[in-house]
Amino acid sequence: MRVKVHRAEGGIIVAACDSELVGKAFREGKLKLEACEGFYGGDEVDECDLCNFLAMCTSANLLGERCVAEAVRAGFVEECSVITIGGVPHAQLYRV
């Protein structure tokens, strides 16, 4: 998995994606999601590191089977909040 941390307006946004998805685009109906290198193309991490990043973020964008499954398993995302775009799981996390 790859993780990139973005800081904006006092918040920490974590973009996490299964490594093989970076640089690809996915469509389903009117939905389109691009796994851009500039947004998702951060460091390679394992499941433990991903959870550490998710624990400290104010929001997160998660893309891919492994990435989303780990966020669900660790309790950061509820299964019912996961959507698929072009057959690829996607979830967002927000803390208020």
Short description:
24% of the residues lie in helices and 41% in strands. It is built from 3 helices and 8 strands; from the N terminus they run ββββαβαβαββ.
What does this 3D model show about the protein?
The protein has 96 residues and is of the alpha+beta class. The chain has a single domain (2-94), classed as uncharacterized conserved protein from methanopyrus kandleri domain like (uncharacterized conserved protein from methanopyrus kandleri fold like, 2-Layer Sandwich), CATH 3.30.1860. It has 3 helices and 8 strands, in the order ββββαβαβαββ. The protein has helices at 37-40, 47-56, 65-73; strands at 2-8, 11-17, 25-28, 31-34, 43-44, 59-63, 83-85, 88-94. Strands 5-1-2-6-8-7 form a 6-stranded mixed beta sheet, covered by helices on one side. A two-stranded antiparallel sheet has the order 3-4. Strand 3 (25-28) and strand 4 (31-34) form a beta hairpin. The longest helix has 10 residues, at 47-56. It is globular, with a radius of gyration of 12 Å. The protein starts with a strand and ends with a strand. The relative contact order is 0.24. The mean pLDDT is 96.
Keywords, separated by commas or semicolons:
single chain; 96 residues; alpha+beta; uncharacterized conserved protein from methanopyrus kandleri fold like; six-stranded mixed sheet; two-stranded antiparallel ribbon; 3 helices; 24% helix; 41% strand; globular
Layout of SSEs?
Elements: E1 2-8, E2 11-17, E3 25-28, E4 31-34, H1 37-40, E5 43-44, H2 47-56, E6 59-63, H3 65-73, E7 83-85, E8 88-94
Parallel strand pairs: 2-6
Antiparallel strand pairs: 1-2, 1-5, 3-4, 6-8, 7-8
